[in-house]
Structures are given as C-alpha cells and as structure tokens.
C-alpha cells in the first residue's frame, strides 16, 4: 500500500496476477451474479517474483482490529476510525509488518 491506498488496490489494479477492471463487469458470470470476474493479468509482477500483499496498519484496506482502543469514538472493526486499533507510528507499523512477513 501507500499513502491513501491499501495494498489490495495495487493487487487488483496494477501488479497482481488478476485484475478487476471494466472487462470484469462484462462477463456472463458478472451479469448473473453481480460479482466482478477477476481477469488474468499477463503483466503481473508474479511472473518474475513472489508477492506478499499486506494491508497495514489496521484498519487500512481489508485489515481490521476486533476491538477499539478504549478511547471515545473508537469503534474497532473494519469500519473503525484510524485509531481504532491503537496509535500507529512509523516504527510500530514497521515492526508489525516485519512480524507479518516473518510469519508468512
């Protein structure tokens, strides 16, 4: 990810093995289900390297916390405010990402 955009955006719009684009909503499956069809990306970065996409810090993108941090207005969960998982700093995000990569 990057400032203002989760990693999942890049995964499905730029570098991942499958893309969600205009063609995703023109398939027979989409017309029947309403769910966009992932389209093969022949230029995926996965052709030349391994990919590990992490949305961080929670609650960015598809990542989330299950409980708030106890402050007023903190709701937790995927719809939580930016502080619903506690305060994040560059150092704490780097440490969390390092742990996630090691466990991968």
Automatic annotation (TrEMBL):
UniProt cross-references to InterPro entries, sorted A to Z: AB_hydrolase_fold (IPR029058), Peptidase_S10 (IPR001563)
Gene3D superfamilies reported for this sequence: alpha/beta hydrolase
Gene Ontology biological-process annotations: proteolysis
Any GO molecular function: serine-type carboxypeptidase activity
Family per record: Belongs to the peptidase S10 family.
Name of the protein in question: Uncharacterized protein
Taxonomic source organism: Strombidinopsis acuminata
């Amino acid at each position: 990810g990057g400032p203002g955009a989760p990693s999942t955006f890049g995964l499905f719009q730029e570098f991942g093995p499958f893309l969600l684009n205009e063609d995703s909503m023109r398939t027979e499956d989409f017309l029947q289900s309403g769910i966009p069809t992932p389209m093969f990306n022949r230029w995926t970065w996965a052709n030349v390297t391994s990919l590990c996409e992490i949305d961080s810090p929670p609650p960015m993108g598809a990542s989330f916390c299950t409980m708030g941090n106890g402050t007023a207005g903190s709701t937790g969960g995927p719809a939580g405010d930016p502080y619903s998982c506690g305060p994040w700093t560059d150092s704490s995000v780097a440490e969390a990402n390092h742990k996630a990569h090691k466990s991968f």
